[in-house]
Write a structure and sequence with these properties.
heterotetramer, A mainly alpha, B alpha/beta, C mainly alpha, D alpha/beta, B: alpha/beta, Rossmann fold, 3 domains, 6-stranded mixed β-sheet, 17 helices, 20 strands, about 30% helix, D: alpha/beta, 5-stranded parallel β-sheet, 11 helices, 15 strands, about 20% strand, binds adenosine-5'-triphosphate, binds magnesium ion
Chain lengths: ~350, ~500, ~325, ~375
């Protein structure tokens, strides 16, 4: 418990905390690997090689970073409003479904570009509605957003299974491997040699900027924060806590839905059961690790994306299971919680 | 029997108790009185080990004992009836009765409960859930539990707030009986007639210190003196012309929340009035203010504000301001800076920059000399400055100001200054309604005094027409003038 | 198929779910939400299988699994109860940490032959006409699941410690005032719940779906268990009933695959969740309703959560 | 002959849909790949397993192909029908690299460029033997088929198994065809994905519980045999026939009637060997068994390995059946009706390869969804 005294130190800065958390998590995992007779160094090198040390691989990292960032932004809205939007996974799925609704139509009579734009707007709306539903259940039905969201996640999963095996299945085929591929022109275009659609990258960056502005530099953002901090007091400032929370949910869900839309339009080009790739849940870990603050989010998303992308190399190069990436991610969050808790003790809040 | 030797306790920066000593004798009832926040409950909780103490010792029959947790207290036969019932609403009466006991014998416990209940004249259905009981019954149950647990020192923290006359009789009978059996009893109360009728000795706390200790019979005057700050001679209330048109009208308003709720409150406040609500904590003033502010829908009855009937739900309308008592918990947004508070309070400002609202909050900081800068967060402010911040957030167009303890934690001159501000604020066509435990303040600032007791308006008169003693008597429940409230309502309009 | 074998299959497949859900019920009754159930079960399944196949001892396998569950629960309790962090947050993070840890550590043993729990029919009872097949021709873990429900009920509602546990979940302050440290109670309850979840994991990897792999096949069960605790509104009997009901749904889903080609059988796997939400809404409405009959009716199959659920206690 | 020409160092990539040690489809490919390193000097295998969206979220075939190519792979094998679109896309991205897509038919339909060939084994024969053995063993006359997802390939194989069973039932055991029940239960994918597919263990279990005493597995993993083993231990007379991998019976030998398996060595040797010697041409290979030595690893592309649980009479009958097949017995010959009653083959007709390959429906007499 050396770091406890360390934390007592008045000069215990944010940077110090970050290094403690990282040290705790990576140290723990490293120790584990060491006891298993695996060299943590090899792992590190392999992960780095597989993620950032080649331009092409970095493209793959970005394809993970984009939806992760979108979901995290969505979560920032809901967490600011004091809501634990565990339903984000379902919101991603719903966005994907909404986008597919449009993209799988052959004869829509619209130019491809218009279809794509519409599809992504639709995905935003789809995710938003699904989230708003959870918010509605909370306001009107007294269903805690955690259980409500969790439930709706699985409902969305059921829906997507039904669509893929039912109405949207390939001709003569009933397979969980997904719907028919979309027409080529309905893929978000990727320049030759690229492995990700620049448009998606732009969307993600815009979304992050928008989140930063909305939450940090508008009256609305302030109202969301007020609702999250103290609903009772918020009413004194003329804020409707219920409504504001609902709105925050809708926006958060919308961003998640957008992530889902991009998953179909530029990663898989079809709808499949695991379309969300678990990014919603992963984003929850990201935002927890960021301690619900905005600024660290892109970096943490990048870190997690690197782990996810690099971990593919583990089985190829070291014959190890890729799930090590998840172990590291989880360990980071748990140790972050531990450190924050210990600090709370130090401050005598417990 | 049990002795407390200069106990002190602080919650963070709040010094709740300082060097308090008192002792409880077997076979006697010892009263503890004091205004709200004096430290009564805290002291008692320390005696049961519920709250940890920052300093001081506890002695049993002369020798020091280590008493750090309720289990210790129980070993010494100390049992407490807490101010806010600490029972298990969703569990059955019997389970509540048994919880915490060393042995588990439902049959036995059922029998004991029946026996004790009979002995004290209480009635229980052991299998009902406790949440279906009244506050009084819950206290009775707790009492029986404590007795069953073999408590020789019983502590009761305001046991009679929000229970019926009958239950009160029953309770007192029980207490006398226990006293006769040689138990020691500590009774915290705000109601002096209870103290009179029950206690052998009484200790008065003020601001966490012992202000006085007396044996019965008590000199009521001295007691009041000790409880509240020095008795003021009549100040002449500010002369404000009372307009005619109503600002707030209550018509037979009933709610059952809070310690005492509100029973059939009927009252009309007119423009130009400054109404002071007096009464012990939880007698109904707070509920009254919340309803007037529109934050609490009445269960029956009607409220009109500026002649318009209130819509339910969020009462936030820009011509009413509400300053709650617990500033940090109900009024301010901890973690947000003064600037952000002012932005939220003001109109406009869709997009914000680091400069937005800076000028505004700077001005407010100067005007209300808040000890802080625009980027200070609310919880960093001291109690007094938090109050200043709240005042500075009141929009200009406000016509009705509702306040709980407006100058709590303010030193004298800043209190005066605050009141100047408030009177200036109150437009000609507006009104102020405030609750305060500080009679001095009410006498000095209000044009009209309304005293609450057990959720009823027990006294309603122009300040000019009453005096300090009538009010303090009314506060402790003995009112000569409990006229029908509508007539009282009229009396509020008498020109003075 | 004849009802006896059908029911026998049902109770066998529901066994681990019953254990996990009851464990979580204990935890939540004490006021702690252990969201890490899904990960705990997987980690338990992995340790159970690995230990059992290395030591060739099923007993050690189950013990190890239970212990693993305890350890995870201990983390939840330390961070969520004693360090006052959000129980949801820590539980959630642990869910994923444990899942991936299980896959990573278990990888070398994936799809290897391991010991399996043999069925041991109860000597005489097994020959009973109908009940024999349904109840007395199973492995010990299934018998354990039979015993678990009555034991839970007895413990919670007929013992002193059960009362204390509920008290701690209901109102920790009151618990403290009665001389019991609620945090200790909560800590122990969390450990107990975790242990049962761990056992449930081993029940999968050593009996119901013998073997370890990625996927093992018990993924998602933890979430189901969490949903069932709410669906059963924190009463062991209703929770267990919910678990069997869920098993029934799944078997029917398979049985009717041909009857409704439109509906994929696996849809039935998500059925508990809408039901859970529905239960919560009913309870909410019954709370706010003036209609006492409706409220009373709802009370039959739904009661509100423990008052102190998820609220950390700190001494003033 | 490509075998005796020593080529330079030749890395090739193998993308497996399941785990390399699944005792099924993927392991068969994996071991064939390892064999290549011995048979074709210089050949070196790079592999990635669990290549499916559930196990590797966010990872697509083109990404992995990029990676393998980056590691120098000159030829890449995609071993699952699930990879069809991905491989097609990757092949378009990397015209300089050769691709083998197992079980697909892009090379026939011309949906892809010249750098993509298809390889498959004539598993119908294996499934016929499986069905035959099942029917010869079954005491209840109820045979269950644990199907993966539904497509032309899986319909083809289920139908083949049925034809084998019916042959045994009617022509060998001389029982009325009506008494034979053959039911297909589809789980939705090639292996269990919890929460996405139906649970194969449960499906098999419910088949056994409703008196289907033999279950033929059509999925890549061994759940069916595992469950059969459990039931056997519990004293039930049931059997299972796994799929894909020669050693699959090892999971529960006492309940295993035998396993029809793929042996990818001949196919790989031909295609990779040609590629190594720059003799690559796009082709669609559908290789059958070596009727002389049906379990000869060097020559046969599909085989049938009898299991411990197969009785001697059944063994003998199976041998005769294999002889007959070798002599040209074709069970895909009329009169045959589709499940919906429409004619597939009139009396005297025999099905063409194309007809068998793209079987549009299950056959009359099979229970279970066709689409
Ligand atoms: N848990 C707590 N945390 C912080 N401050 C507290 C806490 N409990 C009491 N205090 C503070 O300690 C002081 C004494 O509180 P206490 O409850 O003892 O007053 P009291 O005499 O019981 O008042 P009342 O008559 O309203 O019950 C008050 O200023 C109160 O704000
Ligand atoms: N939570 C906090 N974080 C940082 N600083 C704080 C916090 N609370 C109080 N302070 C600082 O400590 C000082 C003392 O606070 P305290 O509330 O005791 O003042 P006070 O003596 O009660 O003044 P007042 O009479 O106005 O209430 C305050 O001036 C404030 O700046
Ligand atoms: Mg008190
Ligand atoms: Mg102060």
């Amino acid at each position: 418990m050396r770091y406890v005294q360390f934390m007592k130190h008045p000069l215990f800065s944010r940077f110090a905390r970050i290094s403690v958390i990282a040290g705790l998590a990576l140290g723990g995992v490293g120790l584990l690997l060491f006891t298993l007779g695996i060299s943590p160094v090899d792992i590190g090198v392999t992960l780095a090689r597989g993620s950032i040390l080649s331009l092409q691989k970095f493209g793959h990292v970005l394809t993970i970073w984009i939806p992760l960032l979108l979901c995290s932004c969505g979560l920032l809205f809901t967490f600011r409003a004091g809501l634990w939007n565990i339903g984000i996974e379902g919101q991603v799925v719903f966005g994907a479904i909404a986008a597919t609704l449009l993209l799988r139509e052959e004869n829509l009579g619209l130019p491809a570009a218009a279809t794509l734009i519409l599809a992504h707007i639709l995905s935003f709306i789809g995710g938003g509605l699904w989230a708003a539903f959870a918010g509605f259940l909370k306001n009107r039905g007294g269903v805690n957003e955690i259980f409500g969201g969790l439930g709706l996640n699985f409902v969305a999963q059921g829906l997507i299974l039904w669509l893929i095996l039912g109405p949207w299945k390939r001709a003569g085929v009933a397979s969980m491997s997904g719907t028919e591929m979309f027409a080529r022109e309905l893929w978000l275009s990727t320049p030759p040699g690229w492995r990700l659609a620049p448009a998606a990258l732009v969307i993600a960056c815009i979304a992050f900027a928008a989140t930063a502005v909305l939450l940090g530099a508008t009256r609305f953002g302030l109202q969301i924060r007020a609702t999250g901090i103290n609903p009772t007091a918020a009413r004194l400032f003329g804020i409707h806590p219920g409504r504001t929370g609902l709105l925050a949910m809708a926006i958060g869900g919308g961003l998640a839905g957008l992530a889902g839309g991009l998953q179909v339009s530029c990663v898989y080009h079809r709808l499949l059961p695991s379309i969300s790739s678990g990014y919603g849940y992963l984003a929850l870990l990201v935002v927890m690790l960021a301690h619900y603050r905005l600024r660290p989010v892109p970096a943490i998303c990048l870190f997690f994306a690197c782990l996810a992308a690099g971990s593919i190399q583990l089985p190829i190069v070291l014959k190890l299971d890729s799930s090590l990436a998840g172990v590291i991610q989880g360990a980071c969050v748990v140790s972050a919680l531990l450190v924050h808790g210990l600090q709370k003790r130090q401050r005598g809040e417990l | 029997m049990i002795e407390l030797a200069n106990i002190s306790k602080n919650f963070g920066k709040v010094q709740a108790l300082q060097g308090v000593s008192l002792s409880a004798e077997a076979g006697s009832i010892h009263g503890i009185v004091g205004e709200n926040g004096a430290g009564k409950s805290t002291l008692m909780k320390i005696l049961t080990g519920f709250t940890s103490r920052s300093g001081g010792e506890i002695l049993c029959r002369g020798k020091k004992i280590s008493l750090d947790r309720p289990s210790d207290a129980m070993r010494f036969g100390i049992g407490m009836l807490y101010q806010e019932p600490l029972d298990f609403p969703q569990l059955s009466v019997l389970e509540n009765f048994m919880a915490g006991e060393a042995a588990f014998a439902p049959g036995q416990a059922r029998a004991d409960l029946a026996r004790l209940a009979a002995a004290f004249g209480f009635v229980f259905h052991p299998d009902n859930r406790v949440e279906t009981l009244t506050v009084g019954e819950r206290q009775q149950l707790e009492l029986l539990r404590l007795i069953h647990g073999g408590a020789r020192l019983l502590i009761l923290d305001e046991p009679t707030t929000g229970i019926s006359e009958r239950q009160q009789e029953q309770l007192f009978a029980a207490l006398r009986r226990l006293k006769a059996d040689g138990a020691a009893i500590l009774l915290v109360s705000h109601k002096l007639e209870e103290i009179d009728s029950l206690c052998d000795t009484v200790t008065v706390l003020r601001h966490g210190r012992v202000a006085a200790a007396m044996r019965c019979p008590f000199d009521r005057q001295a007691l009041l003196q000790a409880m509240f700050d020095s008795l003021p001679e009549r100040l002449s209330p500010p002369q404000t012309a009372t307009g005619k048109e109503p600002v707030v009208e209550f018509d037979r308003v009933v709610v059952t929340v809070g310690r005492a709720g509100l029973h059939e409150a009927t009252i009309t406040v007119r423009t130009g009035e400054v109404v002071g609500l007096a009464g012990m904590d939880g007698s109904g003033q707070a509920v009254f203010l919340k309803i007037a502010g529109g934050f609490l829908p009445p269960e029956s009855g009607q409220i009109r504000r500026f002649g318009r009937t209130l819509p339910n739900g969020c009462g936030c309308s820009r011509d009413v301001a509400f300053l709650p008592a617990d500033r940090l918990a109900e009024g301010l947004l901890p973690g947000m800076t003064l600037r952000e508070h002012h932005i939220l309070a003001a109109r406009g400002h869709i997009f914000l920059s680091a400069a937005t609202g800076l000028a505004g909050s700077r001005r407010a900081i100067d005007d209300f000399n808040i000890k802080g800068h625009p980027e200070t967060t609310a919880e960093e402010l001291s109690g007094g400055n938090q109050q200043r911040l709240l005042l500075s957030l009141i929009p200009d167009e406000v016509r009705l100001i509702l306040m709980e303890n407006p100058t709590r934690g303010l030193d004298v001159q800043s209190a005066d200054w605050t009141w100047q501000q408030l009177h200036r604020r109150k437009a000609e066509d507006g009104a102020i309604i405030f609750a305060s435990p500080d009679l001095e303040e009410i006498m000095a600032q209000a044009t009209r005094v309304v005293v609450f007791y057990d959720g009823r308006i027990i006294l309603d008169t122009p300040t000019a027409a009453t005096d300090y003693h009538e009010i303090s008597r009314a506060i402790t429940g003995e009112a000569g003038t409990t006229g029908p409230s509508d007539e009282v309502g009229r009396s509020g309009l008498l020109p003075d | 198929m004849d009802p006896a074998t059908f029911l026998a299959a049902l109770v066998a497949m529901a066994a681990p779910l019953v254990l996990a859900a009851l464990g979580e019920t204990l935890t939540e009754k004490a006021g702690v939400v252990n969201l890490s159930l899904d990960g705990t079960i997987l980690l338990g399944a992995m340790t159970g299988f690995v230990v059992a196949s290395v030591t060739q001892s099923l007993l050690l396998g189950f013990l190890a699994a239970g212990l693993t569950g305890c350890l995870v629960a201990a983390l939840v309790a330390v961070i969520g109860v004693w360090l006052g962090q959000s129980q949801v947050a820590v539980g959630f993070a642990l869910t994923f940490l444990c899942r991936d840890l299980a896959y990573f550590l278990g990888n070398p043993y994936a799809r290897q032959q391991g010991p399996q729990l043999a069925t041991l029919p109860v000597p005489l009872l097994a020959d009973l006409p109908f009940f024999g097949t349904v109840f007395f021709t199973h492995s010990f873990i299934v018998y354990l699941s039979f015993l678990a429900t009555p034991c839970c009920i007895y413990f919670l509602y007929h013992t002193r410690h059960g009362l204390t546990l509920r008290a701690a979940g209901e109102n920790p302050e009151g618990c403290w005032a009665r001389g019991i440290d609620p945090n200790t109670v909560r800590f122990l309850a969390t450990l107990a719940g975790g242990a049962m979840a761990g056992l449930a994991g081993a029940a999968f990897s050593l009996a119901v779906k013998p073997g370890w792999g990625h996927p093992q096949g018990c993924e998602g069960i933890g979430w189901i268990a969490l949903a069932l605790v709410i669906f059963g509104s924190w009463h062991p009997l209703r929770v267990a009933a919910g678990a069997y009901f869920f098993g029934l749904l799944q078997l029917l889903g398979i049985a009717f695959q041909d009857s409704f080609p439109g509906i994929p059988g696996q849809i039935f796997q998500v059925a508990p969740f809408p039901l859970m939400i529905f239960t919560l809404i009913l309870i909410h409405l019954s709370r706010n309703t003036k209609n006492r009959y409706f409220a009373g009716f709802v009370r039959l199959f739904g009661s509100p959560p423990p008052r102190g659920l998820g609220r950390p206690y700190r001494r003033p | 002959n490509p075998l005796n020409t020593v080529a330079a160092d030749y890395p090739f990539g193998l993308l497996m849909v399941g785990p390399a040690n699944d005792h099924g489809w993927s392991q068969a490919h994996f071991e064939a790949g390892q064999a290549m390193e011995k048979i074709l000097p210089g050949a070196k295998m790079l592999y990635i397993d669990k290549v499916n969206p559930a196990d590797r979220p966010g990872i697509t075939i083109p990404m992995l192909v990029d990676d393998l190519v980056g590691k120098g792979a000159k030829l890449i094998i995609g071993n699952s029908d699930d990879m069809k679109d991905g491989i097609r896309e990757a092949a378009a991205m990397h015209p300089e690299v050769q691709f083998i897509h197992i079980s697909g038919d892009d090379a026939l339909t011309g949906k892809s460029g010249a750098n993509l060939s298809n390889l498959m084994g004539r598993m119908e024969y294996g499934k016929m033997m499986a069905g035959f053995t099942a029917a010869m063993t079954s005491t209840t006359g109820k045979i269950g088929y644990l199907g993966p997802l539904i497509n032309a390939e899986t319909r083809r194989l289920a139908a083949a198994a049925y034809l084998g069973a019916r042959h045994a039932w009617v022509n060998v055991l001389k029982k009325p065809a009506a008494e034979l029940q053959f039911k297909v239960n589809w789980i939705g994918f090639w292996f269990n994905i919890p929460g996405v597919t139906s649970d194969p263990s449960l499906v098999t279990g419910s088949l056994f519980d409703s008196d289907y005493d033999v279950v033929i597995s059509g999925i890549d993993t061994t759940e069916a045999l595992v469950v059969a083993g459990q039931k056997k231990k519990a004293g039930k007379e049931v059997w299972a026939i796994p799929y894909d991998y020669q050693g699959a019976c090892a999971v529960a030998p006492e309940a295993c009637l035998g396993v029809p398996y793929f042996n990818w060595i001949p196919g790989y040797t031909k295609m990779i060997g040609e590629a190594m010697n720059n003799k690559w041409q796009q082709q669609f290979l559908w290789l059958g068994p070596d009727w002389q030595a049906i379990n000869n690893p060097d020559t046969t592309s599909i085989g049938f390995m009898p299991g411990n649980a197969m009785g001697d009479p059944q063994k003998k009958a199976l041998a005769d059946f294999q002889q007959a097949l070798a002599k040209g017995l074709n069970l895909f010959s009329g009169p045959l009706n589709f499940q919906d009653g429409s004619t597939f083959l009139k009396a005297g007709e025999t099905a063409t390869d194309a007809q068998v390959w793209n079987l549009p429906q299950l056959l009359e007499g099979i229970e279970g969804a066709s689409k």
